[in-house]
């Protein structure tokens, strides 16, 4: 198929540092190319891809100090996609909802993955106005707050199988927290759990401007209080394997309806178990007692740290391989592209060119 992938402009594809949605767009784009599809990526100009890149901006908006308002640039993105829309068998949007009014007339070839939280009251009237767009959730739990809409399916995120090598043999090391410093991510819980467990904690996280007050008032004082905490700051993709692979466990102490939680499968790829609070997608991602422990309280999390020796790290990696590779993610999306009511497909030609007449075995959850 000839497929358009439309990415947010806040980060490059893949992002230089933090950026979950753009990272998934990158993994999906490259996996689709590996599976024989013709992909065009609409993204910032500093993106790196084997697809045809349509550079809407010179660089990612978050890294550009001159950008104050992202909306004009996303309008430019929509115009660029609209001008070339007739070229594509399917158009896959990763920019939430801003495109929907402009693409009503070709809705049959469009699909939108919703990457963020959906429990916001302002979203209800919008999706009641635009109920017919084909939507993809990244977990079943993510769907719960939504009014009746056209769910095409749930496709879990995936990573390239060779991106993060597993570290099966791991000494009794530190606990890890990876992501973003914010109230809903609850780094304060991670600090207390580590302190009560008597284990060191390494925190690799970004601090957005909006969360600087929370950092200064709530988290920085805890770092002074507990000497076994090492705040590393934001790390890049190449640093993740060592950071996660060297940990006894990833702490995922969230306090919000997490739509997916990419860091959980990043840890699993490294064969590192996850201790996660029962919120949002967590019960769909973590197999309790196999790839980690699901807890409801800090007391349970401290107990889970003491039980990490019960888990087989090779089984943690096997859980990742079974469910969360980029190839499985791409196969799931391809099946949804084919199911679009207006999709055009040249899949038979692609199979002939590859000399492969066998049908793809596609896994879609939902």
UniProtKB/TrEMBL annotation:
SUPFAM superfamilies: UDP-Glycosyltransferase/glycogen phosphorylase. Residues 171-311 form the Glycosyl transferase family domain. InterPro entries: Glyco_trans_1, Glyco_trans_4-like_N. Residues 18-125 form the Glycosyltransferase subfamily 4-like N-terminal domain. PANTHER family: BLL5217 PROTEIN, GLYCOSYLTRANSFERASE. This is Glycosyltransferase family 4 protein. It comes from Sphingobium agri. The lineage of its organism: Bacteria, Pseudomonadati, Pseudomonadota, Alphaproteobacteria, Sphingomonadales.
